[in-house]
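Sharing a chain and its predicted structure for anyone who wants a worked example. Both blocks are below, sequence first, tokens second.
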Amino acid sequence: MSDITSLPAEFLFHISATLNPPIVVPNGPNGTRVIVRVTGGTVKGPKLNGTVVDLGADWLTMRADGTAQLDVRIVINTDDGAAIHVSYKGIMSPDADGKPRIITAPLFETGDERYAWLTQMQAIAIGAPGQNVVDYDIYRLV
């Protein structure tokens, strides 16, 4: 096994998704659930451009240690007519400055041959929440 101290990655695109206010289901047996509907957004980058469809959601679980586990599903409609399903899980936790940072592992599904390469790779995303928005930079591990 090799000792990996950095991973080679290629920047694919940036997602800026707009969000509804959260619905909170407090104090369940697995923690507090926070459901956030994704209402749209933009996708821009060297490998993909389009819009985020108004039908996705993030099903967060707030954990006792102050972090959140994400479970997200969205659909991207590309500017050239492809539909791409994106699902990812990840963790939101404070960065060194105490600001929330999100790290996820997106997977892509599409039947459009122009974007089949997305279905054959593992991506990583690094992002941060804002006021009714979340922003991610998406990278392909190479």
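Comments welcome. The chain has a mean pLDDT of 95.
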